[in-house]
Amino acid sequence: MAPVVVITGASSGIGEATARHLARSRGARCVLVARRADRLEKLAQELGNGASVVAVDVAEGEAPRQIRDHLDGHLDVLVNNAGAAWRERFDDGGWEDVRRTMELNFNAPVRIIEALLPLLRESRGSVVNVASVAGRVARPNTGAYSASKAALNAWSDALRAEEADHGVHVGTVLPGFIKTEGFPARELLAKPATRWMVSTPERVAEAIDAVAFDRHSERIVPRGYTAFVAARALAPGLAFRMTRGGAFTTSTGDGE
Ligand SMILES: NC(=O)c1ccc[n+]([C@@H]2O[C@H](COP(=O)([O-])OP(=O)(O)OC[C@H]3O[C@@H](n4cnc5c(N)ncnc54)[C@H](OP(=O)(O)O)[C@@H]3O)[C@@H](O)[C@H]2O)c1
């Protein structure tokens, strides 16, 4: 039977690439979630295989119930991917920036999981939370974003342990710089010295597949970013010097 997969943020970038990848490689019946209905409908038509659409703002209170009601009582995989970065310094964006970022990148996935967990327990299915390398290595201008992704990383680790007894697998994918609409990585792509740092949504889609279906716990994409994460843990002074104005800080704050 075709696995039923809910993908939030499926109207562009990583979510769209994941829908295409899972429909092709796993024969998935995709449930596409985001706000832009026109894009989702077009993608659903392209995918075929019973793909359907829930056009909703995932940060709205009723969104988890709307997604659950759309399903016919069965779900194999939930990919919590919808997210955004507003890229404000704290003295510009203040608490309001932190609040809206946490609402979308942390509270919304938690609430969607809460609504869909009974179905996932029944199918002994998987959750993939798309967090970020930024949740492990913070940079200026993206403090709220990093905080939201750090919260998602940590909470996912706890939920993985809690749900193992129920047969539900909870995993994370931590992308580095990936060229998408919301994260265009223009500065990095403009310079030959930094172009290598930018990867594609298709690479992230493969990692999401591995976490969902082969039950890996965590995937960093591209894998080379593991070195940044290790450097932050093992040599924080060096990491702080680099993020304050060095190799992977861009003046626009473009990036994860
Ligand atoms: N690209 C990177 O460098 C990078 C790095 C690390 C992590 N990530 C994470 O990867 C995920 C996908 O990002 P992306 O790079 O693919 O960016 P993207 O192309 O901008 O896609 C973001 C998706 O999220 C949806 N979305 C945003 N706000 C929403 C809301 N309130 N309700 C429902 N859907 C919403 C958007 O759809 P609508 O506008 O149609 O609602 C869109 O489909 C995000 O969680 C992001 O934090 C990206």
Keywords:
256 residues; alpha/beta; two-stranded parallel sheet; 10 helices; globular; binds NADP nicotinamide-adenine-dinucleotide phosphate
Explained architecture:
This protein is α/β, with parallel strands linked by helices and 256 residues long. The protein has one domain (4-245): NAD(P)-binding Rossmann-like Domain (Rossmann fold, 3-Layer(aba) Sandwich). The chain contains ten helices and nine strands. The chain has helices at residues 13-26, 37-47, 63-70, 90-123, 143-163, 186-190, 192-195, 201-213, 226-234, 236-245; strands at 4-8, 29-34, 52-55, 77-80, 126-130, 169-175, 177-178, 198-199, 218-221. The strands form two sheets. The protein has a seven-stranded parallel β-sheet, with helices on both faces. A two-stranded parallel ribbon has the order 7-8. The longest helix is centred in the middle third of the chain and has 34 residues, at 90-123. The radius of gyration is 18 Å and the shape is globular. Mean pLDDT is 94; it is low at 245-256. The protein binds NADP nicotinamide-adenine-dinucleotide phosphate (NAP).
User: What helical percentage do the residues reach?
Assistant: 40-55%
Largest pleated sheet: 7 strands, parallel
Label the structural class.
Answer: alpha/beta
Quaternary: single chain
Beta strands, count: 9
Task: Report the end-to-end length measured between terminal Cα atoms.
Answer: 36 Å
